[in-house]
Amino acid sequence: MHKIVFLDKSAVAPKIHLPTPDFPHQWVEYDFTDSHELVERARDATVVVTCGAPVRAAELAQLPQLKMVCVAMTGTDHVDVDYCRAHDILVCNVPAYSPATVAEHALGLLLALRRQILSYHNLLKSDQWYGEDWFTKVFLDHEVNDIHSSRIGIVGTGMIGRAMGKMAAGIGMDVVYYNRGKKISDLPLVSFDELLETCDAISLHCPLNDSTRDLFTLTEFKRMKQGAVIINAARGGIINEPDLAEALRTGVLTGAAIDVVERDPITPEEPLLQLMDLPNFIMTPHVAWSSLQAMQGLMDRAIENLNQWNKGAPTNLV
């Protein structure tokens, strides 16, 4: 009988129904598992399930009975996939379980940034908006821009990037894509130079790897179109964070809205939290993926990955 250990059940909302694997098994779950707890908790497990709990080589080396790491997410950068491959441990994930939910969040960030929604919300909360100069405070102090008829450049041509493009086109944006890999014939592709120089907004929907790490630094921010903003609901590390802070503080970059940081999950020590008082910066704590509908689909497919693995026909291998 397989022993399955769910390392971080607290990542799943209480309203989500967790399906039961269709083969004999022992199920053990923990709210969260840190690296130093992994070996003890998974010592006799053949399968671990992780949303974001780290599964690294140092701990994997002490778990010789482990056969499968089931990642209940799309991203696998918290798992040492290379070690697993070298030691016959299968790793599966849930690709593109709900591209629309991440795209919706990214579009919401863009709208909030361009329409100054948070600035106006905070203005009314402050009770400082009413008085003789109310017209200036309400209508002139916060620059509002339409996104209709503006150009958005989407970095990444996968399902999330395409979903973002479809939504943006639906509200009248001119949509172009940038892809560092092979040419995509069914999408309007532009060069990186054209992306920087012509887009009013750039939205990141690509993986973090050697070719995309620090893709946006102060150099790129300086080359972006005047007044342009950047959205990142992909992975921290694609944007160089110290450079982002400098660009926002000095006015090199008009605005940024992000859902991810390089040191994930976010902690109270996160340096970018120091930017939260800036009117041109919005940050959310890696929640673009987490609608109830998306989370249910995610867990359904993660458990189905386990069922298929047990049948000898593993799916969604990384």
UniProtKB/TrEMBL annotation:
D-isomer specific 2-hydroxyacid dehydrogenase catalytic domain ranges (all copies): 30-316
MF GO annotations: NAD binding; oxidoreductase activity, acting on the CH-OH group of donors, NAD or NADP as acceptor
Residues in D-isomer specific 2-hydroxyacid dehydrogenase NAD-binding domain copies: 107-288
Oxidoreductase in keyword set: yes
InterPro entries cross-referenced by the UniProt entry: D-iso_2-hydroxyacid_DH_PdxB, D-isomer_2_OHA_DH_cat_dom, D-isomer_DH_CS, D-isomer_DH_NAD-bd, NAD(P)-bd_dom_sf
Name of one Pfam family that matches: 2-Hacid_dh_C
PROSITE patterns according to UniProt: D_2_HYDROXYACID_DH_3 (PS00671)
Keyword set includes NAD: yes
Alphabetical keyword list: NAD, Oxidoreductase
Superkingdom per UniProt: Bacteria
Family: Belongs to the D-isomer specific 2-hydroxyacid dehydrogenase family.
Protein's name in the database: Glycerate dehydrogenase
Organism field: Modicisalibacter xianhensis
Lineage: Bacteria, Pseudomonadati, Pseudomonadota, Gammaproteobacteria, Oceanospirillales
